């Protein structure tokens, strides 16, 4: 559980980022909406090519009233949480274990590098063959996409722990488990925080792509069906929700957590 000091530190970081980003984010959003309105008002057939913000807003109200938008959004967030959580839960200990033995790490590294270079989109066809257009397919691709970034960063983090710390722990009689718990894991925490942020970012892209290609519900599915039904307003609404949701998640949760973790473990002095 988080201690009171840890919670206060996180809240302080959250307030810092919230105050700094709120103004910038507001100005960016206003600028985007002004450009959007200008372009929409000057093109022919805007309902098909670029509906105005008002039209998209009315479309969102209609979908909320029908219960579709909350359902789609909830499905996407749930897939992100489940898939990325499994990916992190597998990737962090895997990276730690590889970091403990350079020989084994060197054996696995080419294979890991190969699979990381094969994007989640590229493995969709074979996963669809295995499980069809289902939630299992989407979750498998999210897990695959989020696993390798965290595993690589944790492996790098373990290797960057100064060897003198490990030697000192051994001199004091620490067991292998104690070295992992008290030296390697704390020393890798900044990398774990950064890798988790990267992995969740990749997972966010994967869940949207997965819903478009193999899903039945979710924001990606909403965009895909909106394009098929020539409902451009729903397509743009989905894009806006995807972008805004990630900004909120990254700037107001993941970034403060990452910064707090890095400062807490003494790698950055503010």
What is the structure about, briefly put?
By secondary structure, the protein is mainly α. 87% of the residues lie in helices and 0% in strands. Helix 9 runs parallel beside helix 10 (219-228).
Query: What's the CATH C level?
Result: Mainly Alpha
N-to-C CA distance? 25 Å
Helix content: over 70%
CATH topology: MetI-like fold
The CATH superfamily bears the name MetI-like
**What's the number of structural domains?**
1
Main sheet: strands, sense, barrel: none
Characterise the protein shown here.
- It is a single chain.
- This protein has 270 residues and is mostly helical.
- It has one domain (57-264): Orthogonal Bundle (MetI-like fold).
- It has helices at 4-42, 46-49, 53-66, 68-100, 102-117, 120-131, 135-159, 163-171, 176-214, 219-228, 232-264.
- Helix 4 runs parallel beside helix 7 (135-159), helix 8 crosses helix 9 (176-214) and helix 10 (219-228) packs antiparallel against helix 11 (232-264).
- The longest helix has 39 residues, at 4-42.
- The chain starts with a helix and ends in a 6-residue tail after the last helix.
- The model has no long low-confidence stretch (mean pLDDT 83).
